[in-house]
Every structure is written in C-alpha cells, then in structure tokens.
Amino acid sequence: MVKATDPNQVIVTSGLTKVFPNGLRAVDALDLSVSSGEIFGLLGPNGAGKTTTVGMLTSRVIPTSGGASIAGVDVVAHSTLAKQLIGVVPQTNTLDRSLTVFENLYYHGRYYGMRSSDARAAAEETLRRFKLIDRADADVNQLSGGMAQRLMIARSILHKPQILFLDEPTAGLDPQSRLALWEILSTLHESGQTIFMTTHYMEEADQLCDRVAIMDHGKILALDTAARLKRSVEADTEIRVSVEEDLEALAVHLKTFDGVSSSQVLDGAVLIALRGRTALVPRIVDFVETGGFTLNDLSVSEPTLETVFIKLTGKELRD
Length: 319
Ligand SMILES: Nc1ncnc2c1ncn2[C@@H]1O[C@H](COP(=O)(O)OP(=O)(O)OP(=O)(O)O)[C@@H](O)[C@H]1O
Ligand SMILES: [Mg+2]
Hints:
By secondary structure, this protein is of the alpha/beta class. Helix content is 34%, strand content 28%.
C-alpha cells in the first residue's frame, strides 16, 4: 500500500510501473505526489506513457509493479472505492451516442447512486454551468468537438469527484474551443478542484498547471513549476537560425559565442539558447553572412517548456 506522508497529498505513486505483455515498459518507476487543489500536468510527446499513467491512477490499467493511492485509497486493492472518488475525461470520446446530451449526464448521476430527482437537478444545473442547456435534448453526435469535450468534462464532475483526471482534454480542438476549455479548467481550479491532466501542448501546461512533469519513454525527466523549469535551461533567449549550408558546422561555431549556453541542430535549423537577450542577434547575422552561409530564416523567442524538453531529450515535443 502506497501511503501519503502528508494528508494533503491526494495522489501518491511509488515506483509505479507498467510493462505490457509485449515487453514494452510504458511507465517506468514513477514517483510523484499531487496536493489537494493543485492542477498537475503531465507533459510529453506521443507514446510517452501519459495515458497508461492515467489508466493506472484511475484503476483502469493494472500496474506491473509499484502502486498508487488516491485520497489515501489504494487504486489496485480498493479500485471500486477509488473509482468513486474520481472523475475521468478519457482521451477518446466516450459519450453514449444512444442518449441525448441531458441523458448522458442524468444516467451518469444515477450510476453514481444519485436519486432520480437529484440526478435530474444536477444534470440541469451542470448543463447551465457549461452553457449546454440549449442542447439538452440534442443527440450527442450533433455536438461540435468543443461542445462534446465540454459535455465530457461536465459529466466527469457531475458526481463531485475529489480528483479530476483529464487525458489530453484539448487535443484536436480549434483555438477558440481550447481557450473555452482552459477557462472551464481555471474556474474548476479556483473552486478548489484537484486536477491531474495530460497534454502534449506546452502552452497548455505552462498556462494552466501549478506544476508540470515532463515525461518521455515512461519516465519523468523533470518536475517543477513551469517558471522554474524554464529557468533551468539557463537562458533567457532562444534563437533559431536556418541556413542553406552545413547546419552542424554553424552550430559548432555559434556555440563559441559569449553567452551561448547551448547550440544544436534541430528540425532543419540551429537552435541556440543564450543569456543576454537579443544583443547577439546582429553578431550572429554578421557571422552567418561573412562565414559564407546563406541565411534562410532567423527567429528570436523566450525559452518555453519545449526548450526544456529539447534540452532534456535532444528532440522536439511535437511530431
Ligand atoms: N495495451 C497496450 N499494449 C502494448 N503497448 C501499449 C498498450 N497501450 C499502450 N502501449 C504503448 O505504450 C506506450 C505508451 O502509450 P500511452 O498511450 O500511455 O502514451 P501517451 O503518452 O498517452 O501517448 P499519446 O500522446 O499518443 O496519447 C506507447 O508506446 C504505446 O504504443
Ligand atoms: Mg495518450
């Protein structure tokens, strides 16, 4: 049994591991704890092990070794009880297509043991809160992607779970629907809801989450607030330079510039992290041009969580 050392820790894992029958170690000895009221983000590329982690925390996937507890309840030994304490928004749409929007909420409430009148009232109140009341009688397959996702979140909190799990809640949504969901999640957070979410959008992890764990190949590579993770790259500026000629050669040269903390070839450009803002830009342009390179493009930005990911793995977060 995995025990929290502090009662405020509502998710605790210890050596949590999943090895699939084909030998793939999807989650490898995960140790983490999430405090009550926190929005915790698991950020990682496709195949990092995010869904498998959520699967184990929500008692849908049985760990190979190690364990986890939710509000002090072991997710394997007491999975039925653990499931009552949580709300889950899975990565894929699991709305019941044979039911209306309202019925999807109502039957969810009944499933969680609410009396008919309570389930009805909760469903109506939640539809109002999520601006879906006009659609109460619609078929769920008439909903847009953003609305369907809103309904999935509405359903997941209907029974007032202690902890809400969201697996890539905004994947595939247009920017407007994504912002609308961010607002919903922020409001839930303000009301004290503990949220564990996965994402491969660094902006989402950065904007929403109190703490972010960066995951790849089943392991957590770094875990902290987004601000501290970004500070850990020891740079305040990131410059991407692309030239016609040998990128490796350019990367090696640029590494010797004062203030440059790293310089590497990534995705058809040289990516330089440096201290000292943009004072180096004119010198870089000058060097590229006098060094016999043909400049294709140059961009300057602040370090992001993606910079952190690149520093840790040498590759980009996106495919
Ligand atoms: N049932 C399974 N059997 C074998 N391998 C699996 C199974 N489920 C997942 N995997 C593999 O485990 C690894 C982690 O998968 P997982 O779905 O947890 O990643 P993810 O981070 O959620 O990725 P995505 O961003 O694509 O959703 C992947 O390599 C995946 O192919
Ligand atoms: Mg996934």
